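user:
I keep going back and forth on a fold encoding question. Separate attempts, laid side by side, tell us more than any discussion would. Would you put together a sequence-and-structure record for a protein of your own picking? Write it directly below this note and I will take it from there.

assistant:
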Amino acid sequence: MTTAIAHREWRRHTPRQRLIRFLAYLAALSVIVWAVSDVNIVVPWLLDAPRAIGDLMGRMMPPNFAQMDAIVKALLETLNIATIATALAVVLSLPVAYISAQNTTPNRAFLWLGRFILVSSRSVNTLIWALLFVAVFGPGVLAGILAIAFRSIGFLGKLLGEAIEEVDRMPIEAIEATGASRAKIILYGIVPQVVPTFLAVAILRWDINLRESTVLGLVGAGGIGLLLQGAIDTFAWQVVAAILIAIIVLVLMGEALSGWLRRKVI
């Protein structure tokens, strides 16, 4: 006597889960379609874009390096903005990360204060910070340094705060058992565990700041962007090409340096 075995097809998701996933995909697609339809695209301009790009590239050739001395000076200014701003952000982000980490903050009030600072820093774009500081301190390098620094505090503080929250509790408990003070617990129990992460994050942020500082001149905050804006305003497209090449070289050198430093740190 043979017993019939019912064949059941295995499915990864239940019917209810498949329905929920379908509705989620449909909602996401609807949002994308709505967003695209809300964008005012001028079709003739869109169709003419390849020809316009070709015409612009033709005007840029050959690059004019006659102002190379001014370009190099502006690149050094850009490098200084990124470096000084990163160093300032590192110093300012340390106490913010300390009070925004749940296992080191003194109380809930300080915790929410730290979180507020981190969110405020990351919510405002670098160019907006630059516009604000240009209005306060006037055009120049100082406004660019402060804009980059205030933008970087949120990035550095958030990642360092998360690293502090993920530290191993065993070394800390061993130090606490000796009756060590709070300062010594932080210095010998927490700092050694987060230093490699913090150095890697600081190097990464410097690399990002180097790229962001190249456009600060567009709003009067110093750097190579100021020279680039002047060349664009005067339709000196061959000079624009030379400046863009110089920016690319600077960013590539910064990428190589930051990669080498991260390998040494990690």
